[in-house]
Structure formats: structure tokens, C-alpha cells
Amino acid sequence: MKKLVLGIISFLCWMVLTWTLYLPSLLVGLVVSMFIALWFGDVFVERAKNFFQIKRLAYLLYYIPVFTYYCLLANFDVAYRVLHPALPIEPGIVKVKTTLTNTTAKVALANSITLTPGTLSVEMTDDGYLYVHWIKVRTTDVEEATEMIIRKFEKILKEIFE
């Protein structure tokens, strides 16, 4: 089951990335996806049965536009900072606390932070702290930084992965 789920996800990613229904391309994608699934299936998917729960899939579909929205906002913010004559940046590393317990959820959160312009996940500790490089540090308080940086993603990721 784990390998099947990874194979399906890999093939769907292939289809989205190539954006074609050309048969040779689909066959290459299918072969590569199945190879990945057979080789790495036991490593990447912890609880395969959870993948097919409607509630989790609905939250995943909800997460995509939420992430896209915050990513676009961050793009405009970084563009403003780069184009501003005074270059208003105050970079630094802040500590945030996540309540996520699932490893996959934590990785998804760290990747979401890294993919959002202006922030970069630097380190994740075993006790749930995440160190984030922030282009303009607005606060060094753990709770305030957590609220500003990760809460918008964390609530949805908890529903998807935990």
C-alpha cells in the first residue's frame, strides 16, 4: 500500500510538471514513478491508509490556495524591499515553536516556510523548535514569531498529516 501511494503521488507530480498527455512522456513518467515507489516506498510514506481519507484530501486541496496566497504576498514584500532605495531589511534568525508531532508534517511546514520568499528554515530540533532566517525580523519573541510565521500553515498541516 505504501508503495502504491508513493507511485500515484510521483506519477501525479510527473503529470503536473510535464503538463502533457503525450503517450511516451506518460510511459516514462509511469516507469520512473514505479521505480521510485519500489525503491523508496518504505522510506517516504509512514501511514499510507491515511492518504485516502476524504477529510485529509480536502484539507490538502484547501492548503494549496492558502499557501499560494501567502507565497504571493511574500513575493510582493520581498520585491518591495529589493526595489526600495533604502533596502529596508533587518535579517536575522528567529526561534519558533511548532505543535506538530508527525515528522512528515514538520518537514512540510519547514518546506512551506522555505518556499515562502523572505523566510528560510535553518534547523529543526527534536523538541519542536524551528530556527528560521527572516528577511526582516519583526520580533524575537518565540510566541509572536510563531504566530507570524508558522500558524497560518501549521493549523492546516495538522489536519492533513496528524
Written overview of the protein:
This protein is mainly α and about 160 residues long. It folds into two domains: about 1-50; about 55-160, no CATH class. The protein contains six helices and three strands. It has helices at about 1-20, 25-45, 55-85, 105-115, 140-150, 150-160; strands at about 90-95, 120-125, 130-135. A three-stranded antiparallel beta sheet has the order 1-3-2. A hairpin with a 4-residue loop joins strand 2 (about 120-125) and strand 3 (about 130-135). Helix 3 (about 55-85) runs antiparallel to helix 6 (about 150-160) and helix 4 (about 105-115) packs antiparallel against helix 6. The relative contact order is 0.13. The mean pLDDT is about 90.
Overall geometry: globular
Classify the beta-strand content into a percent band: 5-15%
Q: How far apart are the termini?
A: 19 Å
Number of helices: 6
The ordered string of helix (H) and strand (E) elements is HHHEHEEHH
Number of strands: 3
Residue stretches low in confidence (pLDDT < 50, at least 5 long) are none
Please give the radius of gyration in angstroms: 18 Å
| Share of residues in helices | 55-70%
The average pLDDT score comes to 91
Q: What would you call the structural class?
A: mainly alpha
